[in-house]
Amino acid sequence: MEKAARIARQESRFPISYSLFPIPHFLVSGMMRTLVSAAVACVVAAGAAQGADLLDIYRSAQSADAQYASARATWAAGQEKLPQGLSGLLPSATLSASTQQNDRELRFRDPAVAGSRSQFNSNSVSLSVTQPLYRPQNFAAFEQAKTQVAQSDSAFAQAAQDLILRVAQAYFDVLLGQDTVAFAQAQLIAIGQQLEQAKRNFEVGTATITDTHEAQARYDLTSSAEIAARNDLELKKRQLELIIGRPAPGLSPLGAKFSPAPPQPNNLEQWVAQANQANLQVKVNEASLTFASQDVERNRAGHRPTLDAFATYSESGSGSGIQGGIGTDTTSKVVGVQLAVPLYQGGLTGSRVREALANEDKARQDLENARRTAALTARQTFLSVTSGLAQIKALEAALVSSQSSLNSTRLGQEVGVRTQVDVLNAQQQLSQTRRDLAQSKYSYILSLLRLKAAAGTLTEQDLAIVNGWLDR
Q1: Residue-wise pLDDT tens digits, 310-330
Q2: Which of 21, 240, 313, 443 is most deeply packed, by most CB within 10 A?
């Protein structure tokens, strides 16, 4: 009776309906392994049949990502700096016209002299054209405009590289989330089967209640991990939706075509040198330094004279304003040059020069920092690629070893030399190794893309190469 009560209490802790994956009692170990493998394969390859690939997601992001659209608008605004700067060297023309009604009353202080009142119109129209001949500030501003256009080009290219990285990161985050859910489900099935076996062994008296408790605890923990993995996957999908502006589609998984290789060239210093010269943030900062140097010259030009040519044509007409008088019409044509020499402006020009020199020094330090950061990023990502390559090979070997260890442990349990806990540990190790291998593959790909971005060479073609590694 006491034994029956213990069994009843144990059954109440884990009814069959409690399991997310009910396991019939008649399954044997071989069938369990088949189900585990099938669960992993089905969930990991869920998006392969009709899944969007990496280039599909990238195309969607190009048209829908708000951050990229903002960068594109900023680039379009930056292109307008050139015509604005050129305008200071081209002639300017102004047409002006006016008309006015005059009401004039004339009074004399001598009461004996009668005053008068008159009403008349006066009109004028004038066309004025000015051509700068010597304006060093305007010429410096034009050179600055060309620098700003080049800077906006580099900034937009950097935004394009950033879009590639963000798309790849979001894509492989979703794949990793799917893998994590798949491995958790497979582990849940395996542990559930171990739990059922522990119950049956306890019922027939060939095992203690400890094995059942251990399997139950592992099952509960794995069930919790599976729920957390599902939640994390949903968050990763929302991150992808943020970039593409629509619900996340099924994604093509990484397939057998994946062939990791060392970066080319396989030389750290060459990548660092490339980053020092071609990194897009470095180019942006180089343009900032050039602009700051040009700003110094522009402000120093405030001490120099200016020379303009001008021409004016005007016509005006007015009533006489005298009783019985005759109005007048005037035509005026003027051509000349105007010289202006700044003498003293209260110290404003000198202060602006000192300000520009300080900004130039700041831009120089920012450029040095950008170069150091680019070099550091190149070193870090190069080492991440090479170490990731070694890690993939090690984990592939570890996966084979973990599977062999699990098979040996199951056999040892059948002959009585291994315990239930040993089998559960081996199952957990195999599942963790599978996840670590998947994560190392995705990390390798992302590190390779970041390395090329650090060197300023990341393009859509690099994304196409990665896309060729997917099952589509």
Answers
A1: 999 999 988 766 655 677 888
A2: 240
